[in-house]
Amino acid sequence: MDTLRGARDAPVTEDFFKALSRVKNIHEDVRILLRTNQQTAGLDIMEQMAVLQETSYEQLYRWTQNECRGLTQESCDISPVLSQAMAALQDRPVLYK
Q: Collapsing DSSP states into helix, strand and coil, what is residue 70?
């Protein structure tokens, strides 16, 4: 959670993507709780993960924008992290666009 809720200008690293993937998995796994008697807990966890996901995607979007602005025709070196960021943003078509 600390990695995903870092400072707005914090660099995005491999750990960010690992944490984002873990949040997505938790969000999906919580659906099992919704089928049991633990529906209240499931809804609470699902809501927390959804908020964390949205915050993370917005941070990733801002970081990606800043990285893309730094690209010029002379130096068009696209880092693996930027490629990974673009791939992750495809989950949110509005941000990817």
A: coil
| Tokens at 84, concatenated | 């990974």
**Cα 37 to Cα 55: distance, rounded to the nearest angstrom:** 29
Q: Which of 91, 70, 92, 67 is nearest to 80 (CA)?
A: 67
From the CA atom positions of the chain, what is the Rg in Å?
16
Structure tokens at 86: 């673009």
Single out the residue of 49, 71, 72, 52 nearest to residue 60, CA to CA: 52
Task: Please state the three-class secondary structure of 20-49 as a single string.
Answer: HHHHHHHHHHHHHHHCCCCHHHHHHHHHHH
Which residue type, as a one-letter code, is found at position 84?
Q
- Say what the pTM is: 0.81
Between these two residues, 76 and 68, which has the higher pLDDT value?
A: 68
pLDDT tens digits, residue range 7-47? Answer: 666 778 889 899 999 998 888 888 777 787 777 878 888 89
